[in-house]
Fold:
Amino acid sequence: MKILLLKDVKGLGREGEIKEVKDGYARNYLIPKGLAIEAKEGVLRHMKEIEKQRANKEKHIREQAEKLKETLSSLSLSFTLKGKEKTYGAVTKIDIVKELENKGITQIEKSQIIMDNPLKDPGFYEIPVKLYRDIEGVIKIWIIKEKD
Structure:
């Protein structure tokens, strides 16, 4: 029997795949558990339409991520830390997100910013940002020590 998998099934296949299985396995296990449905002509047409929509959505998201990457490449953020000989405080992911929001960029969350430790020392930093699966942007950050 040909079935269409509705969910990933270990040892059989991934969601959306069409597989040939024994009738008993399909009727007694996969279909009642909601893991698969019988792959009839109408179901296959419906799945093709869903795949087409998913591809369009993927394309749109990729385009948005590329535009955001270009916007970030032309942007530079500045932070000022207090201190005479040693700076006090640090620039964290939350600080970066807030500053980006002040500049009008609201699509980036702190989980997308790739930074191991807060930035404490004055200088120039290029911080990577995961925008989409394989699209990564860079935020340029200047940290300036405030003079008393």
Observations:
- The CA atoms of residues 1 and 23 lie 5 Å apart.
